[in-house]
Write a structure and sequence with these properties.
The protein is of the alpha+beta class. It has four helices and eight strands; from the N terminus they run ββαββαααββββ.
């Protein structure tokens, strides 16, 4: 079964910067030789995450506010003693959401719902440019 590995870059603002990467992924799938299969989307870095959501400003605020309640960034986490970078909460948020997602595609079209987009979320305390690896697997 053919496999193509690609990479995209994305910039996320600090403290829960959510970026819609659906179009970038769609373009890479369309430009691949694979017609039907899956694309795994993986964030390189331990303070970023990949998931799906309805990408709209008020839901983005809800995500940030909910995570502030679950995992506050201003808490004194043990991790802060290791590196002094005060991003322990960022690591915990990324761990909760997860670094990857697999999306099936048919005839080079991602099989997402009408209001479902693939997003990268930067949980770090600073703006970050991240590499996202796409592994496209399937039938030609």
């Amino acid at each position: 079964m053919p496999v193509e590995t690609r990479e995209i870059s994305v910039t996320g603002k600090e403290d829960c910067g959510i970026v819609d990467i659906t179009e970038k992924i769609s373009e890479e799938v369309k430009n691949s030789k694979i017609r039907d299969g899956t694309v795994t989307v993986f964030c390189i870095g331990s303070t970023g995450a990949i998931t799906t959501m309805e990408f709209e400003p008020n839901l983005s605020k809800d995500v940030s506010e909910t995570l502030d309640k679950l995992i506050p960034l201003n808490k004194d986490y043990h991790h802060h003693k290791t590196w002094g970078d005060f991003n322990g909460g960022s690591h915990l948020r990324a761990l909760l959401v997860g670094p990857s997602l697999t999306v099936p595609f048919v005839e080079k079209r991602l099989t997402l719902g009408t209001w479902q987009q693939v997003v990268y979320i930067n949980f770090d305390r600073v703006e970050k440019v991240r590499k996202i690896v796409l592994q496209i697997i399937g039938e030609v």
